[in-house]
Amino acid sequence: MFRDKLKKYRPYQPIELPDRTWPGNTITKAPTWCSVDLRDGNQALIQPMNLEEKLELFQMLVDVGFKEIEVGFPSASQTEYDFTRLLVERGIIPDDVVIQALTQSREHLIKKTFESFQGAKNAVVHLYNSTSTLQREVVFHMSRQEIIDLGVRGAKLIAEEAAKTETEIRYEYSPESFTGTELDFALEICEAVLDEWDPSPSKPVIINLPATVEMSTPNVYADQIEWFIRNMKNRDCALISLHAHNDRGSAVAATELALMAGADRVEGTLFGNGERTGNVDIVTLALNMFTQGVDPGLDFSDINRVIDVYESCTRLPVHPRHPYAGELVYTAFSGSHQDAINKGMASCEKEKDEEKVWAVPYLPIDPEDVGRTYESIIRINSQSGKGGIAYIMDREFGFKLPKEMHPEFGAIIQQVLDEQGGELMSDAVYHTFEKEYLITEPCYKLKRFNVVKRHIDEKEDLSTAEVETVIAVHGKEETLQAAGNGPLDAFCEALRQGLGLTFTLQAYHEHALTKGSSSKAVSYIMITDSDEKEFWGAGVDTDIIVASIKALLSAMNRACSARQNG
Ligand code: KIV
Ligand code: ZN
Question: Which CATH architecture has domain 335-438?
Fold first, then answer.
């Protein structure tokens, strides 16, 4: 059945361009960006934006850095007309921003478009008519010449209106459905329109070549653009503009390849909103450039604000996996990814200076560059590993767990996840750590601790100490005294001699706590009990010696609990 359906379709015919040059090019500078969010994007919404929403989105587009903004189709809708008037009358358009409006090639629509611009400093009149083979045949029943005449008539009327207005007018022409049009015909009509507008290198006309419907692989669009540029008469009098829709899901790729083929300008929308599968996504295009070290000329350093305004104005969500912007795109759940990110971030931080090149596995961009915090990078579920858990403890709570401690704490978290399922939020990771290591004292509780004597012999490199301590053992207080090589060693001796405990101190780590209470320190201690079983403990205190005593008792308590629970 499926095979039968295939007979309905024909492959798109690629163009003959064996000496194409674009594959050898790279994108080294940003194009001129034109946002069509308020026209093409708006036109595709279930509920088009009202004046307030259009205004809010316009302001945000200006803040991001767009210098060309298609504000609507003023001759086609009263709201769009009113919006254009509102922008002009309230003096909202910055001097370095040009508004653009779309019109068909009909006298009353062109006149209405100019009327909507009255009082504006600068504006682009965007004329379009469909040129595609299919539409000529099945929609308009018009010959090639008739289609050219239609475009030229519109161009002439626009030039006449432009001569009458005070507004500085720039011209744009789109052979709509360019990618469904024979290339030679697309060129013929564009040149006929260009002749009407008498462009010059100092006053070039925008020739916008839309993939109104994306019909082929992106390389074919690039071939078409290279062919067009190579064959046009007055290349220096035109700005070649791209306008890709995303029917095959490759609008970003098509636009990038077409830029490599020599285009100057890109029309698109934020997050790819637009007819059907949308227009090309300018956020992705711009940030793709940014991650190649090319200044995109647009500022997405506060991507969350852009998302908020976009979502509230369009009533469309940004997909959680949307490149650079989605809620989950800086998040790793998988243990091996978390581990690699953790190591990459640590290596980047070690050499933090302006010259440092970003190189973190699985993260093509530093989330901070788009205003995302590191907190969301690693999230914990049953797929996560010990590295991710250690990352959360470090990044969010300032506990740099010793590497040898990761497996033990990782297994504790895994057990919690097995019991509760789903995701464990970072606060819950910390509370598990706190409960496991810092606050439970089922067997031994420190009541008092005193260093009674301390002797340091620098010459002999020798340190001795005598301590006195009171420990509640299952609630019964015991006063202990002992000496050793330093306070911790003396405390260990006190436990061994006074309580008859058998253990060996195997590892000791400490560091200052930089998050929360910065005057505190944390100690981590690993002991082995008489059965050679390993137990980690941790202790926090303003005094590093007390922190180490607490860490030892934490390990002893965990060993005692394990014995009690069999
Ligand atoms: O997709 C398209 O062809 C258009 C034109 C009006 C430029 O939006
Ligand atoms: Zn479009």
Answer: Orthogonal Bundle (1.10)
